[in-house]
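Quick log. Single chain, no ligands specified.
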Amino acid sequence: MKVLLIGDGARENALADSLGKSNRGYKVYAMSSYVNPGIKEVVAKTGGKYYTGDILSVEDVKRVIKEVNPDFGVIGPEDPLFEGVANAFREEGIPVVGPNKEGAMIEKSKVWMRQLMWKYNIPGRLRFKAFNNLAEASKFILEFGGSIAIKPSEQVGGKGVKVVADLQAYLSEEKRNALSKGVNNIAGLVKDDVKLIIEEKVDGPEYTLHVLTDGYSYLPLPLAQDYKNAYEDGIGPETGGMGSISGPGSLLPFINEEEYEKSLEIVKLTAEAIRKETGMDYIGVLSGQMMLTGLWGPTIIEYYSRLGDPEASAIIPRIRSDFGEILELTATRHLSKAKLEVEEKPSIVRAVAPLGYPLDKKMASGHKISLDLPKMRELGCNVYFGSVALEGMSLVTKGSRAIEIVVIDDFINASNKLDQCFSLVSSDTKLIYRHDIGNTLEAQVEKAEIVRYTYKSREKNGMLGISADWSPNGGLW
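-> predicted structure:
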């Protein structure tokens, strides 16, 4: 069987790896915007073919589909989904893992997502307001005077979120100026008429539940947690993700089975709401980026219409079942036949990025990077190649996270192995790497216990999901 994989990052390297190891004997074909060395290795081993081109161009992708004539496709990143690449597969009669662009709106537009959750009364929803007039947005922030999150209205690669947590923000001229600047900066990231969305702020440990669905059945994957900030201890600008953890088992140390089941129910209800709203079945991965809060318990921060990156690198290696076959069953709408067996030991992923990421892609591009891959594998580290191209005999950075290093072991051993493997990576520029990923679990367990007590008390008193706040001019939501 032939499978066509679209995408060029570490997530797609992990997907290619699982397809290449499948007992189904797939020939893996790939289309990327540059030659990813990890994907290329799988393509060569399975006897497929590697194509480079514009993965956001429906016409370019269609040409490759017609040449390969695959049995099914797998789309890794979100942007091709937003452009309708999954639609193109289905128009050619090829089943594919990935929702049509109509369904991918759940990730592309935070406004559409929030409206959908309120329209269909889905638990875990937050109050919000959307603005295309920046003066009105600033006025709302200052009059509300409470804790809020300000976000771009559309997906911009995990960047641009600002949190204002100051009950007297409206009193300070300095804060007024800072807020106005923040609103303008966030709005500048967005092309649509609706520029930004303001949500009530919630707090608690974050986690992601990825769910495969063929429109009929649902298969939840092990939980993962993403570490967004660029630098140690969660400081610095937000990135696409500097690392991730998953496990033990299907959970995380701070999320229990009941919360896992509630999270799954929220994702199921959302998939059903998308079908009602668009008239189309959702086929692919629907991922809830969640937070355990005192307001709801499991609470939706945003959705992905695909596997997260680097969460995929933490999850896929832990799946003992034939994940390539599971992807085929998703695409061909036979997911009810899938069986999922998960490694009990947890995993840690740490990304390595060139200096300049995430704020200056030009500074982070064009650097040579080298690694002792055989030695890293000998130490127990798996490596997925991300934003790094094979140019001749050299690995050259493309401006984002270059590689993701993965270890499956208990958290302490995994952390030590990762540091050893990172010492085997070198470059002609400084490299960014967070040593603390996977080392903050005790604090998160403690935080989850406090949050759990709060939402359980609210649930007992019939107050789950009910918000109350104070502002100088009364209710504003």
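The longest helix spans residues 257-278.
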